[in-house]
From TrEMBL, chain A:
Organism phylogeny: Bacteria, Bacillati, Actinomycetota, Actinomycetes, Micrococcales
Its biological purpose: Catalyzes the condensation of carbamoyl phosphate and aspartate to form carbamoyl aspartate and inorganic phosphate, the committed step in the de novo pyrimidine nucleotide biosynthesis pathway.
Protein name: Aspartate carbamoyltransferase
Positions of the Aspartate/ornithine carbamoyltransferase Asp/Orn-binding domain: 165-316
A molecular function GO annotation: aspartate carbamoyltransferase activity
Source organism (scientific name): Cellulomonas biazotea
Automatic annotation (TrEMBL), chain B:
NCBIfam families: PRK05205.1-3, PRK05205.1-5
Residue ranges annotated for the Phosphoribosyltransferase domain, each copy included: 21-164
HAMAP family for the chain: PyrR
Placement of sequence motif PRPP-binding: 113-125
Source species: Cellulomonas biazotea
Pfam families: Pribosyltran
Name of the protein this chain belongs to: Bifunctional protein PyrR
Gene this chain is encoded by: pyrR
Reactions that this protein is recorded to catalyse: UMP + diphosphate = 5-phospho-alpha-D-ribose 1-diphosphate + uracil
UniProtKB/TrEMBL annotation, chain C:
Family annotation (Pfam families): DHOase
Obligatory cofactor(s): Zn(2+)
Top enzyme category: hydrolase
HAMAP family (alphabetical): PyrC_classI_B
Source species taxonomy: Bacteria, Bacillati, Actinomycetota, Actinomycetes, Micrococcales
Binding site for substrate: 62-64, 94, 280, 311, 325-326
Full protein name: Dihydroorotase
Biochemical pathway: Pyrimidine metabolism; UMP biosynthesis via de novo pathway; (S)-dihydroorotate from bicarbonate: step 3/3
Length: 331, 194, 440
């Protein structure tokens, strides 16, 4: 693995390996001394063109727990906002010796460009690009699903296992969601069955090519599919306004159709869990009853995020540099 | 140093079997007695095997300790200590898979930790293990058991218990094969005479 | 006295090889007469195996001057045009300042005349500043020295139906044509690429086919209603082809163009997020590519126009969303048409002469271009070697910019020579810099 740009880049072996590594990382995080010397001397740059304190802190924590040096580069609001400046920023980071660049960008594909334009030799980790991908979010979601729903629900060793047969409903603004795109691909790779639930306005044209079923009715999906997990997506209130695209008539109507409330929570199978990538709009896509219920694993997702990101940084940075070497190995 | 990918030793040229299953068994029995003798019993002893092949060796030693001292619970004696994240050679090798670290229920604080590995060579793995232990707790003492000591130390580290000293050249490869991981017990030397 | 050229054994429109003599700016003789009249001073060009076509006419070129001389100038753009086999180009109006007054179009026209590589026909803006609010002085531009006949807000759509109707009506007075960039603006807010399977996966905002088709449908009905002629720029979808086919069957006076890149490239190329493939209208699907090829072959689509859109490196060397729309095309157009239409057996070289020369000349009302290869006709000609193959290297092209989507791609065909009124602008595939300079 040279970069982590998209969940689509991972085959089932890669994905399970990341989840297994995350499991070992999580074990170290239960100890008194959480810091590991593994990435001592490596430099990780968090390059954030878009505000996301949660994601940045998660990556920062992960890097620091592995003893990497962390440089936070917040490019939002500065002169760095578009065009050539991504290149100049990348060249600057390259000059500073970044071994990995964790990039969050408002433009879909910016991490791909950063990785392939020859501007940096470092590993590029996509921490969310536009409406494209957020692969570490999908990995932490898969990790959380596996912990709760595979084996005996978190006690036995689940390493090596995928998510074969699990039914996951992803509910909300699929159109604008990088979380949905990443999860559909990764969950499919891991053998889970995904149903996307959204008003038709928030489903992208071209969704028919995705390995997922699409429904416009949350109640039907809960009743018929009996999902093992429901993943609620954040819905931005401004999407209802005409300037925001006019995707739905009112927040109230959205909530009635697609919000996860106490009634729908009760209708879920007993073992089902509720995920949300955060930050939540309580009262819009998820009610307080659902968000605070014992079946919501939303806080745990945050902790798992650190373990998964440690695993990703380990797998990208710990091994020998992928540049072609001519080293001969004595037999 | 043994590797994690067991190619069938028989298929390789210049293979020399230096220890068979009976010798390995006798060596482990001797080490078990030495551990008990040196530590005046097995009450405070924790055997931490270093994956991959140190772990089954630690389990075998634990079983032998329990045979000699029937009061001991072999399951509570042995654990695994993965040192991958403490290695100093990560950047020079393909990315290693991280193994599990499982300490016995009593932890290691105040205990005598006996590190168990298959081959002692440069000493770097043991250096990493010592660092890993210090992040996990504070044992009263740390000792080292190795099935084979092949020499060529690069650090001031020595074993307390050795199954067999094997003088080797650095161009040779020493591989320990165990029933649990490789289907049979043997120590073989490969290559080196080209 | 200009050089006389004797082209031996050339195949006019791919037909039977003959000798052709160029003298005094015209085709002086063909067949046995040519050699007889050539005399000793004529430069002989061995044309065996070469195809002789009327000089190509581009109805859709962005020369960028005035305003973006860092991307292209009239001089570099027209030199590239000559290298690509063109003898006349229409310079689009979206310059800075906009070509929306007689003064600016005359400036561009003069720059073209002084450069001497091809005849530059400026396109006039339909609305002031391309703002889509009020008509520019179309009459003044038509009556200027630039003699504008094609009007377009290209880059932007004349989306106000009343304004579009007025423009269609108004240009009738001077036999003009409105060339519409068909793009419904609300349906394409923030659009980055064709809306479909690939955009859904890449998370890039979609540019739906319907945003083009809806405007074309409206415009052909408007043209029918007011009895005007309409030209549709860079048509890109299967649905658009259907609408044009329907409009023509009703007798509506509409013409349509397709770009070389829409004849061959698809939206799959966006997967690498390389802004080289970012263009407006966007690259569509394989089904659309097939539909525009079929439309071009059956005459539904009248012409191929390059939409040559040079951009500086900084406008392309960045993330997709920040990059400019557009690709260069002057120096690859003929090769792409050969590859997609001639080498596939769907068109003859005579058809190529129609779609790349005579039809665009007719639509743009360009006299003396796109004429038959016949004695007495102006010697605006291009000599093509269809058997040659070359790998496109943008750095070797004459255009100032390097944003060719065909970079590294092997294409058939090579322009051997281009003649503008009997004067060679390109010989042996190389622009004749000295001749051009001397001629002015």
């Amino acid at each position: 693995m040279r970069h982590l740009l998209s969940a689509a880049d991972l085959d089932v072996r890669d994905a399970v390996r990341i989840l297994d590594t995350a499991g070992q990382m999580a074990a170290t995080q239960a100890r008194e001394i959480k810091k590991l010397p593994t990435l001592r001397g490596r430099t990780v740059v968090n390059l954030f063109f878009e505000d996301s304190t949660r994601t940045r802190i998660s990556f920062e924590t992960a890097a620091k727990r592995l003893s990497a040096d962390v440089i936070n580069f917040s490019a939002k609001g500065s002169s760095v906002s578009k065009g050539e400046s991504l290149k100049d920023t990348a060249l600057t980071l390259q000059a500073m010796g970044a071994d990995a660049v964790v990039i969050r960008h408002q433009s879909s594909g910016a991490p791909h460009t950063l990785a392939h334009a020859g501007w940096t030799n470092g590993a590029v980790v996509n921490a969310g690009d536009g409406t494209h991908q957020h692969p570490t979010q999908a990995l932490l979601d898969a990790y959380t699903l596996r912990r709760h729903l595979v084996g005996d629900g978190g006690r036995s060793d689940v390493s090596g296992q995928d998510l074969a047969g699990l039914r996951v409903a992803i509910v909300g603004d699929v159109l604008h969601s990088r979380v949905a795109r990443s999860n559909v691909q990764l969950l499919h790779t891991l053998g889970a069955h995904v149903t996307l639930v959204a008003p038709p306005t928030l489903v992208p044209v071209g969704v028919e090519a995705w390995p997922a079923r699409v429904s416009y009715h949350l109640d039907e999906v809960i009743a018929d599919d009996k999902p093992d997990a429901v993943m609620m997506l954040r819905v931005q209130r401004e999407r209802m306004s005409s300037a925001g695209g006019g995707f739905f008539p009112s927040p109230l109507e959205y909530t009635r159709g697609f919000g996860l409330d106490a009634r729908r929570l009760d209708a879920l199978p007993d073992h089902a869990i509720v995920l949300h990538p955060g930050p939540m709009n309580r009262g819009l896509e998820i009610s307080a009853d659902a968000a605070d219920s014992p079946r919501a694993v939303i806080v745990e997702q945050v902790a798992n995020g650190v373990a998964v990101r440690m695993a990703v940084l380990y797998l990208l940075l710990a091994g020998e540099s992928p540049a072609p070497t001519t080293t001969k190995v004595d037999a | 140093m043994s590797t994690g990918t067991p190619a069938p030793a028989d298929s390789l040229e210049h293979v020399n079997v230096v220890l068979g299953a009976p010798e390995i068994g006798r060596a482990l029995t001797r080490i078990a007695h030495e551990v008990l003798e040196r530590n005046k019993g097995g009450d405070d002893v924790v055997l931490l095997g270093i994956p991959t092949r140190g772990l089954p060796l630690a389990r075998r030693l634990a079983a032998r300790l329990a045979e000699v001292e029937p009061g001991l619970d072999p399951a509570a004696l042995a654990g695994s200590l993965d040192v991958t994240m403490y290695r100093d050679d990560l950047a020079h090798q393909p990315t290693r898979t991280i193994g599990a670290t499982d300490l016995p229920g009593g932890g290691i604080d105040g205990k005598v930790v006996v590190l168990v590995d298959d081959v002692l060579y440069s000493g770097r793995t043991i250096r990493a293990a010592l660092d890993a232990i210090s992040d996990l707790g504070r044992p009263r003492a740390v000792q080292l058991a190795a099935l084979v000591d092949r020499g060529h130390r690069e650090l001031p580290i020595r074993a307390d218990y050795v199954g067999k000293n094997l003088p080797t050249s650095t161009t040779e490869r020493v591989r320990v094969l165990l029933t649990e991981t490789d289907g049979r017990d043997a120590v073989v030397i490969e290559g080196g005479t080209r | 006295m200009t050089t006389r050229y004797l082209l031996t054994d050339v195949a006019p429109l791919g037909g039977t090889p003959v000798d052709v003599l160029l003298a005094d700016g015209v085709i002086a003789a063909t067949g046995p007469d040519a050699r007889a009249q050539a005399g000793d001073d004529a430069t002989v060009i061995d044309g065996a195996g070469l195809v002789l076509l009327p000089g190509l006419v581009d109805l859709h070129t962005h020369l960028r001057e005035p305003g973006r001389e860092d991307a292209e100038t009239v001089r570099t753009g027209t030199r590239a045009a000559a290298a690509g086999g063109f003898t006349a180009v229409h310079a689009m109006a979206n310059t800075t300042p906009t070509q929306d007054t007689a003064g600016v179009v005359e400036q561009v026209w003069r720059l073209g005349r002084d450069a001497g590589w091809v005849d530059v026909r400026p396109v006039g803006a339909v609305t002031v500043g391309l703002e889509g609010e009020r008509l520019a002085e179309l009459g003044a531009m038509a009556q200027s020295e630039a003699a504008v006949r094609v009007f377009s807000d290209d880059g932007k759509c004349v989306h106000d139906p009343v304004l579009m109707r007025r423009a269609l009506e108004y240009v009738k007075a001077f036999d003009g044509v409105v060339a519409q960039h068909a793009q419904e603006p609300r349906l394409t807010e923030g659009a980055q690429m064709h809306e479909g399977v690939v955009s859904a996966e890449l998370g890039l905002t979609g540019w739906p086919a319907v945003a083009e088709e809806a405007v074309i449908a409206r415009d052909v009905l408007l043209a029918e209603h007011v009895g005007s002629r309409l030209h549709v720029c860079h048509l890109s979808t299967a649905g658009s082809v259907e609408i044009i086919r329907w409009a023509k069957s009703r007798g509506i006076d509409v013409t349509a163009e397709v770009t070389p890149h829409h004849l061959v490239l698809t939206d799959d190329l966006a997967r690498g997020y390389d802004p080289l493939f970012k263009v407006n209208p966007p690259l569509r699907t394989a089904a659309d590519v097939e539909a525009v090829r079929a439309g071009l072959a059956d005459g539904t689509i009248d012409i191929v126009a390059t939409d040559h859109a040079p951009h500086t490196r900084e406008d392309k060397d960045c993330e997709w969303a920040a990059a400019a729309f557009g690709m260069t095309g002057l120096e690859t157009a003929l090769s792409v048409v050969q590859e997609t239409m001639v080498d596939t057996g769907r068109m003859t070289w005579a058809d190529v002469a129609r779609v790349l020369s005579s039809a665009p000349a007719r639509i743009g009302r360009v006299d003396d271009h796109g004429r038959p290869v016949a004695v007495g006709e102006p010697a605006n000609l291009v000599l093509v070697d269809p058997a040659a193959r070359r790998v496109v290297d943008p750095r070797e092209q004459a255009t100032k910019s390097v944003n060719s989507p065909f970079r590294g791609r092997e294409l058939p065909g090579r322009v051997v020579a281009t003649f503008l009124r009997g004067r060679a602008t390109v010989l042996d595939g190389v622009p004749c810099d000295d001749d051009a300079a001397v001629s002015r």
